[in-house]
Design a protein that fits this description.
Length: about 350
């Protein structure tokens, strides 16, 4: 039997950081995001023996494990091991499996690729065993695997974005997460795509280190950080309203305000390379933008005047940026069985 899955990566427009504990539980967080046509892919194939093999194209790793041995967390494919151990506690997996994994964006890119891969893995097991998991169940389980089982610092938005798909306004609280799908006019979506530019900065980063600094700043109740997080939530609501009402130039200007406030959360969020790329983009026709994800590297998202977008792209490429084409993806996690 062969099972496949794919889950979309996401662009976070605003609110990232307010979805991280303990802030989300104590103050409430909100995030505006949308999924794009870049995916984490997974394939599961059953075996006749008691071996588990994992081939990861992203890490150029082929690993083999025996079901009779403990899968220890050692930094090699721990997301896969943690998913298996969580879905099949107390050595509950009694059949050998082959996995083939691939993502359209590198780990540390700021598009939520690691969390999205966990969602894709859970999708494989749900399809294989016909488990009655809702979208909320999958996202919550993915968060548990990455943040609690493995102890990787980060927020909650990526797991929910990848599972649900589309444009979402997501609310994070102490007792629940609520995903509010946004009904945006197709013409507005097309026009937004026409104005947006996605540029890879050429470097990845460890988001956990940035998140750690941000959490420490919040726990110490640093006034500037608290004010910035409150302002980010306000801007997130304004961005959502601008998007629903089709006020896209306002949306672009608000992205700039969001980026200025996001930089106040932790010193590592930006650096001279990012600053130069962003300043150049603004000088040549970008109304606003931000680094996706926690910051420090990955992708720069920019809203440009329609007749200046090609100029901004050319100037960023002169500085070593790599412009990436994308469209918005309305679907979340998808799984299917291959008939052989």
């Amino acid at each position: 039997m062969i099972i496949r899955s794919k889950a979309p990566l996401r662009l976070s427009f605003c609110g990232g950081g307010t979805d991280v504990l303990p802030y989300a539980a104590e103050q409430g967080g909100i995030v505006l995001s949308a999924t794009i046509d870049k995916f984490a892919f997974g394939t599961l194939r059953t075996r006749a023996d008691r071996s588990v093999t994992v081939q990861s194209l992203d890490y150029d790793i082929v690993a083999k494990y025996d079901l009779d041995d403990e899968m220890r967390y050692d930094g090699e494919l721990d997301l896969v091991k943690a998913t298996i151990r969580t879905m099949f506690p107390a050595n509950g997996l009694d059949q050998g499996l082959d996995f083939f994994l691939h993502s359209d964006a590198p780990p540390g890119s700021g598009l939520g690729s690691s969390s999205t891969m966990v969602v894709a893995l859970i999708g494989l097991f749900r399809q294989w065993q016909r488990r009655p998991l809702t979208s909320y169940d999958i996202a919550k389980l993915a968060y548990h695997i990455e943040r609690e089982e493995l102890g990787i610092r980060g927020g909650m938005q990526d797991q929910y974005a990848a599972t649900f798909g589309g444009f979402n306004f997501i609310e994070f609280g102490a007792s629940a997460v609520v995903v509010n799908p946004l009904r945006i006019d197709p013409d507005v979506v097309n026009e937004l795509e026409y104005h947006l530019l996605l540029c890879y900065t050429g470097r990845t980063r460890m988001s956990a280190n940035i998140i750690r600094t941000q959490v420490d700043n919040y726990v110490r109740q640093e006034a500037d950080v608290l004010a910035a997080m409150t302002e980010l939530k306000h801007i997130t609501v304004e961005l959502k309203n601008a998007l629903l009402q089709g006020r896209l130039d306002d949306f672009g200007a608000l992205l700039h305000d969001a980026w200025l406030n996001k930089q106040r959360l932790a010193s590592q969020i930006t650096n001279p390379v990012i600053d130069e790329l962003y300043a150049t983009a603004r000088a040549h026709g970008a109304l606003g933008g931000k680094i996706t994800g926690a910051g420090g590297g990955g992708y720069l998202l920019l809203y440009c005047a329609f007749d200046k977008k090609h100029i901004v792209a050319a100037e960023l490429e002169k500085l070593g940026g790599q412009v990436v084409e994308f469209t918005f993806e309305p679907h979340g996690l998808q799984t299917w069985e291959v008939r052989t």
